[in-house]
Design brief:
Blueprint (H helix, E strand, L loop, with lengths): L1 E7 L4 E9 L2 E10 L5 H14 L9 E6 L10 E3 L2 H9 L8 H14 L5 E4 L19 H5 L9 H14 L3 H8 L1 H4 L11 E6 L5 E6 L2 E5 L22 H9 L3 H10 L2 H5 L7 H9 L3 H25 L4 E5 H6 L1 H8 L11 H6 L5 E2 L8 E4 L4 H15 L1
Parallel strand pairs: 1-4, 4-6, 7-10, 10-12
Antiparallel strand pairs: 1-2, 2-3, 5-6, 7-8, 8-9, 11-12
Amino acid sequence: MKILVANLGSTSLKWRLFNFANSAERLLHKGGFERVTDYPKAIEECLAQLRDAGHLESERDLAAVGFKTVIAKDVTGCVRLDGRVLGAMEAYNGLAPAHNPPYITGIRLFANRLPGVPLIGLFETAFYQFAPEAMMRYGVPDSWHAVGVRRWGFHGASHKFIAERSAELLGRNDVAARAQNLYRDGGKSPVTGAPLRVISCHLGGSSSITGILNGVAIGNSLGMSPQSGLPHNNRVGDLDAEALPYAAKTLGLSVEEAQRQLAKEGGLKGLSGGLSNDVRDIQTAASAGNAKAQLALDVFVSEARRWIGGYLLQLNGADALVFTAGIGENRTELRAAICANLDQLGIQLAPAKNDTLRATEGIVSADSSRVKVLVIPTNEELVVAREARRLLERN
């Protein structure tokens, strides 16, 4: 069973081809194009590369094409991407304007090019459909909640991978099995040991923190849209509901322009005075004495600690704190800042381990730390492929 996972951006196409055979899973090929202006041509060249590499004789060798879809009205989980689902995605274009439109366009192009191949989406909201209702509600009127004003949570594929892999590394195959079967049985797989409490920190261009109990999410720092939670590269993160109308009136901005600035000029870029939306540039400038760059880092660290602290309380402690994604896997200084002075909470880094571990799976906590601090490179595409395979097997 060969499954192609396509990652679609407004000007990019990236892919990975997985093979599932004899209970094994193997990455066969990965590639991508940036600055795409002709998507049909890019899709054709993707398929040509797979044929030229000897992984496909024809498109009939594909069992499915999987997509890391973001959000849709009244739809979540792992589903076939039919007209109804695409319409539900379009209904929420305004909540994910940088994500939903290019995905919808790309999915339709794949459908035209591969009419006999199932197209399957794993929604980023899927991992949170089993979270306690109290963790997912806003204090809004019922009429608002009825039309979707609630916490949805995102980065579900990444945090689900962390739920599985952290349990495996901690010797908890029972919890790993529950996470693996989550979309099959809703988290009813038996857990035979003590509760396993994991806080997963997906820190990158877009960031979120999730509390995980026995392989199942209890909540996520992202809320109704990807515009919430921690400060992102150029998206604002959490913001008081009155801030947008106030700034629009005071600065003479249209609501649309205010939204654009929050989405394009906020986050780390806004905090750094417009310097950059790349944490590497910001760290370099901060090291050279740039006060605004340092402030951007300080706010990011403070917000990460605030969400970690909230989940420590909700989970009654933690067995593991996991760092993943571009910043979490590579920026050792930010890991150290987030974990600083937490020894009374059982979190102690081993500086030598932390300083040398980048983009590699491993433990960076001290031997005496009650909470294991792990670095686990995420693999969202593998999660999409796994869930697409499970959906095909069920049907």
